[in-house]
Amino acid sequence: MMKENIKLDLGKTRIDKLFWTYAIPSIFMMIVQGTASLIDSVFVGRYVGAEGLAAITLVMPLIMFLIGFGTMIAVGGTTLAGIEKGSENIKKSNNLFNVTTSLLLISGVLGAIAIYLMVPLMANFTGAKGEVLTQTVAYANYISYFTPFFLLNFALGFFLKLDGKPVIVVLIMLSGTLTNILLDYLLIAKFAMGVQGAAIATGLSQAIPFLIFLGFIVFKSSWKIEMPRFYLNEVGRIFFNGLSEFLNNIALSITGVIFNYIIMMKVGSNGIAAYAVALQIAGIASFIGYGIAEGSQVAVSYNFGAEKYKRVENFRNLSLKVSFILGILMCITLFLFGKQFAAIFVKEREVINLAIYILRYYAVSFIFIGININVGTYYTAINDPVRSAMITVYRSLVAVILGLFLFPIFWGDKGIWLTIVFIEVSTFIIAFFMLKRSPFGNVKLSFLDRDNGKDAI
Length: 457
Known about the structure:
Layout: H1 15-47, H2 50-86, H3 90-125, H4 130-143, H5 147-162, H6 166-190, H7 194-219, H8 232-241, H9 243-266, H10 269-305, H11 309-345, H12 349-381, H13 385-411, H14 414-437, H15 447-451
């Protein structure tokens, strides 16, 4: 049976041991996944130039939109599968596995077509011209072929973690990162293939882990690949439960286009390149935040399904504390070494100086970013997508529009970067009061309820 293959008991193993066993591989996995884009940026920035770096940045909003749609399915499906597994509904949990992966495969194929057709329109909208426009279209054309692997890997990693194999997941993703580094060197630095080489390297860094994931799913896991049985209410629950992740990425896509447009109009292509450098470095903080959140999500969903609410509370509190401590450490690190980080990506002095300036604002936001990500993911894990969506949409869209609309009026160009701090601080305030009011989402419990019966640690 599925239960017999789990090495760690999600409902009984000591919370701190379970948290770190899942969180550390999850953080590494998120960093490994994120470094595909970061490594591309380093090689493109140094061997192609600021135009190539701007091209990758202009493609990102649409890619994030599609990844958001895939994440909605992956998070919604794996969360429900975890809850059913915690309730010992093994057959239903396995069907959710098959339904989720089937939906992601279909989404990946449609997403590839969308990237191929829509990127030229988006690039023209943001004002890209000449070499920047040419390289943007070239990067999009090649990366589109690999879209299904981006979407499927996220879910397969979650399902293997739910099967008690968190370390295996990070090792598989590490193989993709090493592939990306090697291919970036060969295709960009050695054979001068430019952004086309970067796209191929990134794509293969997802395709290879997918094949390994598939092998483990088939031969080394308790998940069974079967013909999925689609039930309309079940598919609806998958989409609804993962809605906040989708809305988050839609919002990020929209605000990414807005940021790109404003920066291009006010600063120019060097501003886009500097912003791209800052985004890549700031992305590390987001990867760590999502790693902590997703590391505890599996255990939270399982224990929520088993009605062990005290364990749910302890997982949540531990992830928030760790996020806060790491946020402070990352803030200090960026203030001390921002110049050295920026110089890794580009050679142009003007771009480096502007990137350092932008990174100071990101450094302050790091204190809050992990907590905000964790609160949104936590509400998804306890089957409360409405509150999760409220947090993530405010953070990704509403706060961005408010900041970009108001701050430049009072502080000029500086207001663009002040928006970065405003987003995280205001989201943190909302998240704090939301947790105080609804610590278990739609489930209302007294302290006695949490500490007795099935909730015992």
